[in-house]
Write a structure and sequence with these properties.
About 50% of the residues lie in helices and about 35% in strands. It is built from two helices and two strands; from the N terminus they run αββα. The protein is of the alpha+beta class and about 70 residues long. It has one domain. It is elongated, with a radius of gyration of 21 Å. It has a two-stranded antiparallel ribbon with strand order 1-2.
Length: about 70
Amino acid sequence: MNRTIGLVLIVIGIVMLIWTGFSYTKREKVVDAGPIQISADKQKSVNWPPYAGAILLVGGIVLVATARKSV
């Protein structure tokens, strides 16, 4: 089980090092007055620091290296 978790952490860590964030568009209502509705598209972004990916990568390597083999 530790080996599987370690491999998942390694993959997530590599992905976080390559892509340091993403952005998406969210539609929000600006005016909602009875039958009249006006909405606007707002761009949001999610960013994380590169060292977070490095920490996950190192943690995954440690888990894989210390995992015991099943007999």
